[in-house]
Amino acid sequence: MATTTTATPGRRNEFFKQLRTVCVPLSRLALQSPDKAAAAKEIFTHVESLSEIWAAQVSSDPTVLDEKLAEYTFFPVSHLLRFHDQFPVRVVEAIIKLLRFLIQYGWKQTISEDLAVQLLFFFSFTISGTPGQAKKRHVPEETAVEGFKALGALITAIGPTSLLASKAPGEENETVTALGPAITVTLDGITDGVAPTVQLEALECLQAVYTTTRNQHVLARFLPGTVSSLTRVLARPLQQKTQRRVLVRCLLVLSIVLVNVLSDIKIRGILKQIEMEDKAKTDDAQPSGGAEKPQTELTPAWLRATTAQIKIALAAALKVRTHEALDVQSAVSKFCISLLDECHLSLANCQSILVESAMMVENEENERSMLETSLQDLAAIHPELGDCIQATLYNWLISLPRLIQSNDERIKQLAVRNILRGSKMASAMGIDSSTLNDSLGDSLRDSIVALVKGSKPSKVVGDVDENSLSTATDLTVSLPNIQLYPPVLLDSEGIKSTRAEITKLIANIGSPAQQTKLAAAMLGGLRDSEGVEQIASYWLAFELLKTTYNSTSDMEDLVDMSSLDENRYQEQVFQELYDFSASILASHSISQDNDWRIEAIALEVTAFAASRMKEDFRPELIDVLYPVTTFLGSPTPQLRSHAITTLNVIAASCGYKNVSELVVGNADYMVNSISLRLNTFDISPASTKVLVMLIRLTGPRLIPFLDDVVAAIFAALDNYHGYPVFVESLFSVLSEIVTQGVKSDMLLLEGSNPQAVSHLKRGPQPLDVDYIVDTLNKRAERTKRAREEEAEPPQPHPKKPWGPGKTEEASQAKSLLDQLENPDPEEEGEKDGGLPDDPSSALATREDEEKKNQPSNTPTYALLTRVLTLSQHYLTSPTPTLRKSLLDLVATVSPALAPDENAFLPLVHTVWPVVVARIKDPEPFVAIAACKALGSMCEAAGDFMASRFKQEWGDGMAKWLRGIKREAVKGREMPKRTGTGAGRAFITGGKKVDDMEIVLPIHGPNGGHQLSLKQLVSTTSSTGSGALGRFSQAHQLWDAALGLVTAILKYVRVDDEMFDEILEVVVDVLHEPERRELKEALETINADAVWLALYERGRVKGIKSMPRAVKGFEFEFVRVPGVVA
């Protein structure tokens, strides 16, 4: 203890020495310097040194500091204060900073009243200037900050001692009088501060006033101005952004002000008087007496008037509750809870706005401390707050449809968020009101309707690709890759945040039982409503039920047995929703008038049901699979996307690997649904598109089961042949059947393995030495056998046949003839066991037996045969695209049916007339398709087509081919040439043209023969330069005709005359690389004729070796152009 007492004076003396080294020269300058402004720099240095000395001592050992050291330091400063107007602002700021240290750590609560009053005026006038006078100089931000810090420290120091009421109610001391200007300056700094730091220091100063002052009359006097200034800061528009820390501090200070002035404890006497007045009902006498009393006297009348004004101020100040910052919302919550708790009776008229604000900023995500009071805790203490919460929630509900129509998205989101918070609070407090539940459902539905009507409709593309059903790769994804549904309602990007808030409200509103009741209420009038109202109710019901299933856990079901009834009710409501969805899906194929949004919701409901039921959903596929697939052909892109996602979800939920397996596994359901519609002529474009998709996905496996469908299609064709587009859609199904049917490995006949016959013509084999040797050996054997026969003696005429004996059929025929010549009367009347009366009937019986023994065709083969047979009647259709499709069908199916010639060749005979007539079709693309079909038939039927092509060639096919060539050549630039004839070389009278020379025998002048060099003119190449060239219709048709000619030459027997005519027409193009196949086909039949034709036209080179000398002839070499040596 002795060490401490001895050490303290030492540290004090050391600190005093430091002060003296600065205070002495500072005092000399303050007292003796005539020009204060000239010494300002030196004075500023000394004042800063004193501030640093005090700051260092505060940080090291503040116990050394006391009022005496403060007085010693203040002596030179006091002289400087007399001339503060002559010093620069920096010097004044340094003096204020030093005074703050003296007040805060030196004088503390021992400062004299006179000095406190003087300093109050000095700080106030330094910050804002002398009242009634214009500011002489600008006060920097730093000076204002130091001024408010010093002012706050001074008010804190003098509060407990000086700011006390006088003995008489109307009297005041000097400190209270000086406090008025200080508070005014402080309030001006709060509202008009040049920087947030100035505002924050001013708020600290104001807080010091209301926390240190114990005089209620003084605080009541400054209350109106204080509340008004703080309200001005809090109620500023959002455009004038106030920093969050200023708002938070303002709310804290306003709470302190109201609690310190109007808390129930502070004015309990006035509240008791009001209670007594209410009981005695003496309100008439009291106001008159209160009006004559001073304004600062705290009376019931003053309380009524003050609370009325406070309510108006709070209505403006609490607009800050819409601020998005979490710290501001937390400050608002604490402010409202504090007033509801501390001023429950005094501010009873403000309960509604305080409760509403507290509910709006309630943040359930943040964990609240157990020591903090919440609104629910206050509602448990004060029941009237519970009624206020319920009334506030009801008002929010009925105003939601109106607010949701606002153009400000922030207002919409705030309204939805408020209802969510209010509903959670009501649920936590156990508030269960039928009025609230009804209002909630109606408000949600009306709000969704308003949003849907007010939002811009999304762009819908009306065009859809005909093949989009079967080429969509999205139908083969697995479960983890399934995409989510895009939003059906509120899909505009402008209301994306509002949609998220509404979805969050639906997902978290009430308990699962309450959500189920709301969904049931929505479904109640669903079938009777229409338009947007029906869509909104439908969507809300589905979202509510989906939420109930997501929030229900199996553990809750096991623990709470009372939930079984709720689960049954939940299942009943969902079943009703699913039934309505199934009816919507079924009506799509009947009528296209439904709004696409309600159909999209129905698809989502179906997918959700499948995801819940898993494999138990498979029986439902009978009713929903076909309707869902029909949406793949919808002209609305959103519906197509929903249908793809729905099929993926159903496939994954029901245990299928992909949609293809789903469709294949349930093909019988779909085919049955389609067949029923076709049989009743209930045919829509979606039916044919779905059938095409179904056939393409399943492949050849489904073809054998489509015989009834094909029959129904042809029946429909007979009834709707006047509708070209519809007929084309039906034939698209037949084309798909053929395309998939030819891929089947079951086209071969049952019980046999017929090999496909190759009709490709082969050229004569060259003679080799072995062939010559074999021929000579056979000739020698024949000569030897002839000699041996001549050497044998002659024999009599044979008495029995020379052959080895007749076959069984010949024996049976002979017996039949013998019986006919020598009939047996005993067997005339016998019918059993005897021979038939008519030999033709026996032959017919044998043919029947052969047909029975012949293997029957497979169902796929029979179906393709039927399609090909029935398609011939529509090749004369006026629709070119249909004719082209049918010809492609013939080209596709012919190679598949060719192995069974007994069944195929009659089909060729049947379709030949209508197919061959199409080569002269006025539409070039149809004629091209006809050429390809005939080429396919040639490859499949072979020589069976020989007589038909021979007859057709003479009837005009040759003329048609020459006309096609003429049209193809017409558009090209043809060089002029001498002579006549198409596709030939012409003599030019010995003139050299393009170095084209050939050796030709001619008659000499003496009647002999000699070889002379003559010039040839090149024939026109087929690669002319026309407007479109090879891409013109004429050139494409010429290519197709050459392809047909190639097929005829390769697979069909052609007589010599027809061959020569073909060669004459096509010889001009044989030199082209792309005609190599045509040239090979011609050479297979007669290579010499082809060479000669090319030789005559200069397309082959002459003989290099010199021929043997021939009497009367001479030879010489010539060059042939275009021929490589």
Automatic annotation (TrEMBL):
Stretches the record annotates as Disordered: 278-297, 781-860
Comp. bias intervals (Acidic residues): 821-830
A cellular component annotation (GO) from this entry: cytoplasm
Classification via InterPro entries: ARM-like (IPR011989), ARM-type_fold (IPR016024), TELO2-interacting_protein_1 (IPR052587), TPR_TTI1_C (IPR057567), TPR_TTI1_N (IPR057566), Tti1 (IPR016441), TTI1_rpt (IPR049362)
Domain TTI1 C-terminal TPR: 776-952
Matches recorded under Pfam families: TPR_TTI1_C (PF24181), TPR_TTI1_N (PF24173), TTI1 (PF21547)
Every TTI1 N-terminal TPR domain range: 16-361
The protein's name: ARM repeat-containing protein
